[in-house]
Design brief:
Distance between the termini: 56 Å
Number of helices: 22
Oligomer: single chain
Organism: Actomonas aquatica
Largest sheet: 4 strands, parallel
Keywords: Iron, Iron-sulfur, Membrane, Metal-binding, Transmembrane, Transmembrane helix
Protein name: Cytochrome b N-terminal domain-containing protein
Strand content: 15-25%
Length: about 675
Amino acid sequence: MLRALDAQWARWDGWVQRHLPAEDNPWAQTGRLANWSLVLAVFSGIALLIWYRSSLHQAHDSLAVLAASGRSLGGWVRALHRYSSDLAMLFIALHALRMLTALKFTGARWLPWVSGVGMIVMVWFIGWTGYWLVWDQPARQIAVTSMGFLDALPIFGEPLGRLFLTDRLVPSLLFFVVFFLHMLLPLLIAVGLAAHLVRLTRVKLLPDRRLKIALVVALGIAAWMVPAPLDPPARMAERPEVLTVDAWYLSPLALASRFEKGGLWLAIAGVGLLGAGVPWLLGRRFAPRRQDEGPRPSALFQTTVEIGRCHACTQCEQDCPYDAVHMVPRTDGKPWDHQAWVDPTRCVGCGVCVGSCDSEAMHLPWFDAVAEEPAIQAVTQAALTQGTGPVRVALVAWDAVGGVQRFDESAWRRTLPGYQVHGVPTAAWVRPKFVERLLAGGIERVLVVRDGRGESAARDGNRWAEQRLMGERKPAFRPQRAGGHDDAIRVFDFTPGGEAGLQQRVAAWSAAGDGASTFSTARSWRGAVVLAGVLGLLLALTVGGSHLRVTNPEGVAPELVLSFKAFGPRETAATERSAEELAKLPVHMRGASVGKPHRLPVEVTLTVDGEANTRTYDAKGISRDGPAIDVWRVNLELGAHVVEIRLRDEAGEQRWQGTVEARERHLNVITYEPTEGFRLE
């Protein structure tokens, strides 16, 4: 299924890149666009501080002024901050999906995958804290859900959820802590990005200038046309009927409404661990293997070095996109100081180093050039021997069609009539010396079909392949060794669905000797329209997901909530020691009796309309010397109710009696603290 999805991605890329160059295709630049969106979110967030007040009591009012003033600069900056944050999450999700379907999580790619999962969690959490800072009705749900999530951990002495039952109890300091987390945590993204890219060379973090400008313009237009939503201010004792939620960050609210606290932890932790474990769960299954190996998995996909053939030219070290090849001191006594060494923790088996090695020292065990090149030559020589006409060879990269499993040789023969078709791992695997041998042996033309996608498997290697065959990069193609053929090679890009375009270019080459080697999509008005359409689609997903109106999953029935913290009477129980136990103790510790003070349980009786219920609460703490704490919830019918509460603590019996009016979606909260007594909030 993953390979089928990757093929669909490739077809979509192919359609877009018929009108746009790969560097302008947003679908092919998801990782870089995610970085650029995060940059925009950071700068727009800093600008938003001009209008925003980071106080629990002023935060919503400062944003309400922007919302009430219509389209204003402050409102535009707020919308820009929100949509750029949403767009970052969308691009991250697309990037992760592309890497998953392209199977870029196997072997040495486990670290980028795991660090990427960690960055998704980090970006999501930063966004979660950002929606808290709005302090509107969705922020109330975020706060309540967050406290419930934390209360499932047995590390807090008092339930944090008690602090979010009424507006009076909400701690301003905690709001300020959330504000600083939202401001400081983005710094950790840089650390995560460093871990994510540590195994790559020649990293490009941001898209080209044209695409950056296009995204800023599109975001600016969307932010001006569709202001960011703002719900009424948070009221902790009121349950809103509907909420405006951002699907890109607030989807866990839906989980929280369906799981208990422990279940929510299991659901989130399970999804996180499952995502991070993909390299081990699926990596072996999708390890590269030969065509003739069948379904049996193979772990032998990494490049090996035949030391005796290595001339220490360092070209493989220069070309490796993953910094997996290094030069180490020589071990075989030959007259070079160094030899190539492949780091097994970094090599992904892309084959770029095979194409860069003129001395045939680099081998892919599952497609060894030493065996495969002669096999292809033998087939071409056999065709020449038959004398049926000129022989042309097409070396088609498997990664252009989604891997060797999706390579259909007969279909390619129909696509490239007149060419003898041979599949190779990537275009970068093709060595110039091999092409020289083919042409010197009598082959009329050699066509290399490479993966034209921006996220190709061999990364820089596809570019190196063309430069080598054009004589612009070592090891360069040498026409004199190819029988004087200097115009018999072409490298054409291909994406699935682009068969007709490929045939046109091949025909143009055959008919007029077209000098253009690679296919380059001209930038035109049609390309601009396609780019605007793609960005418009992405922003429609972003803005639409940011304005979802959902029904509050909390019940409509009114509740009576009793939140109390009380200390039971203190008691010290004496424990007598036996004579043997006393004899084992030092003289100064031989007291007649010992005992730790503890508190007796607190008894609470709650009576509603004459119906009484009594509960007994033990003191908290290992020695049972802390307070008894609980939040007691009772569903009420609509209307007035007579409530009586009796609570017995160390000060004696405490009593409260009164009438509460039960309304839909309303909490009647009564609190008790030893220093304040009962209080109807």
